[in-house]
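job 3f2a | input accepted
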Amino acid sequence: MSSITIRGAAAADLDRITEIYADAVTHGTASYELEPPSRAEMGNRFDALTAGGFPYLAAEKDDAVLGYAYAGPFRPRPAYRFVVEDSVYVAPEAKGQGVGRLLMQGLIEAARAAGFRQIIAVIGDGHADSASVRLHERLGFRHSGRLEGSGYKHGRWLDTVFMQLSMNGGAGLPPDPNSLPERKFRQQK
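job 3f2a | predicted structure (189 res):
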């Protein structure tokens, strides 16, 4: 039996990534988008993240993409440059097989290696027994807030849960001048 491989996502994965996300938008509550974006829009999002040096990963087994995860800017203001927001989506047929955990572990390591200090999870429909909340808890994220009734989808109000994971010294150390966020900031100045 072959195992699941976590690797950098490529443009060739975008058709499958678009399918996985379309299912999450159409049937789930993790995303607050109401209509699945087109393949072209997903390509634009992928290009923007990878051009910015942000990690974007795919989970693969037997040459099939089972899920994907990425970290992107949390907010556009420059003081937030050390904070990323994670996103992870797993194909319906692959849920419950550890794909999300493997993707998140790879994403955490990639964000750590790039020099980010915090990963923020913004979890739609973040009730206590949500698979995403439980996954983030198991990976060391702590609860940092809840927005009650912040989204309306599938005929009901949804809460948004914020969780965060500190890394690379978090807020306890000054910025690393060699980190990706600091190098990009200096280049933009």
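job 3f2a | The chain is about 30% helix and 30% strand.
job 3f2a | closed
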